[in-house]
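step 4 of 6: structure.
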Amino acid sequence: MYDFNRFIDLLNKKVNTLDYAIDLVKEPFHIGKIVVEARDFSMPLVSIKSESISEKPIVVYSNENSVISFYSNKDGYSYTNEDIFDINLLLRLISLSIHTFVLTNKVREAEHLSYNTKLFNSHGYISKLVSMADTIDGRDYNSYYINLKGFGLINKLYGTDLANEAIIRYSQELKAFALDDEVVGHLGGDNFVAFIKRSRAEEFVNMISKVKVFVGRGKRKLEINLTSTIGYDEIKVKKIDYSSIISNPAMACQYARNTKKPVVKLTDELVEMVNSIKNIESTFDDEMQKGNFVVYYQPKFDILSGKIIGVEALSRWINNGQLVPPGMFVPILEKNGEIVRLDLFVLENLCKDIHNYRNMGHNIVPASCNLSRRDFEIEDLEKRVIDIIKKYNVKTEDIVIEVTETTNLEENERLAKFIDTMNQNGILTSVDDFGTGYSSLSVLRDFKVSEIKIDRSFINRDILDASDEIIIGSIINMANRLNISVICEGVENEKQAKFLVNLGCNKAQGYLYSKPVPKLEFEAMLQRIGTYHDEN
Ligand code: C2E
Ligand code: MG
Ligand code: MG
């Protein structure tokens, strides 16, 4: 019998870290003719070869640099059956201890760290902040909530593995940025939090707004640009309120997402707005009656002549004197099905305005309004749209209905039917946010629409490079060849406008020309700038 009781005792009592297990046998340990020792191998082995002892040394377990091995201290010694039995027993004991350790550690880690990225999870993030409480002043800090833009699409395009890797790389950038008295965390998915010194706010936002990461290996190595939507809160008290340290910037981030803004700061007005928006489900009817929903107009321009060629009607909600953008209430109304009321209300207002404007003897440009996907659940949607247009004696060619693409087959069939009926009645249709769905190209083939509106995400980039040129260029080309008119939304500067003209698209809508404005302002603009009719 070999005397390895001492070793087993040590294992049972003291092995609470992997390094310690290796430490235990750092000094060669003799069991009869067998030697147990840990050696530096400088290679990461994690295998446990407990069955094979014919090759020497036997690797039991290793961390990054060390292995525990067994070998005979006598040259030419061949193991007896008894040796083999004992060694196997030992190996099992060691491996059991190590597994137990690894497992306990994992559990401990999981409580505080995000599994994937090893950044703090929400629990760890708050625990860390609590541990810093005595040494910091909250007023020196901003708390952030960060969501990656379009991460769903990245998942679809590159697959879950590469998308996860992108998240890990992004986390590493976050972690590298944070100083010792700052904290970053990963709440899961594409949501992150950060507690950063206010003096470094600008630097932080610049860094995090756009992070370039490389994923995959070898030839499959890909560059992915991750852009963020950021909500933040400037902490105003010395002692941090842990209950709102995540939810406050989260509210600002949600607002930023809904209104498609890159960075939003939490303000008292924002909190008030968000809280009252929550009630829209119950107050919608009332608010409609009170005339608190209004229509804004955003003109569409011919880039070359600078004339107005069309206009889009966009809804706004005046809530306690504040103008609420549709991104905040449209999704809620879409959920509860009230959206169709709002959409037909916008159409009706638009038709009323066109009617009055024509009566005043002015030139008209085609005017569009938006329909939500949920509207198509209404059986007689077509009739209701046409009835409104007829009611105000509006020429059908003056109206454009903007619809969005969908991946759902049934929805597509319904949409195709709607477009057909509009076509039969001479009403133009346009595909809004073109390119953001996954079925864009088949949209061109399957739907007989008159126009596509290229989504602003295509043009809204710092640098428009060769691949943008190819992508946007081929969309424009294809549409032109199919006799579908193309307009690009979200044009904010001359460079983008020029870029479009060079690719054969002369129609644009965006802040470069005008934001959405109230009716009277739009009418003044029509008078001042003139429409394409004035040229002919
Ligand atoms: P959309 O139909 O794609 O409308 C264009 C949105 O882009 C408008 O936001 C407009 O203000 C904004 N925009 C225009 N030019 C620029 C630009 O140069 N840069 C940037 N960053 N943004 C620009 P808005 O009015 O907040 O509307 C957001 C979305 O809400 C609309 O997107 C539309 O999908 C929806 N929406 C608005 N009104 C209605 C409505 O009455 N019914 C339905 N169903 N949806 C609506
Ligand atoms: Mg639209
Ligand atoms: Mg759009």
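step 5 of 6: annotate
 - The longest helix spans residues 81-112.
 - Residues 4-111 form one domain.
step 6 of 6: archive
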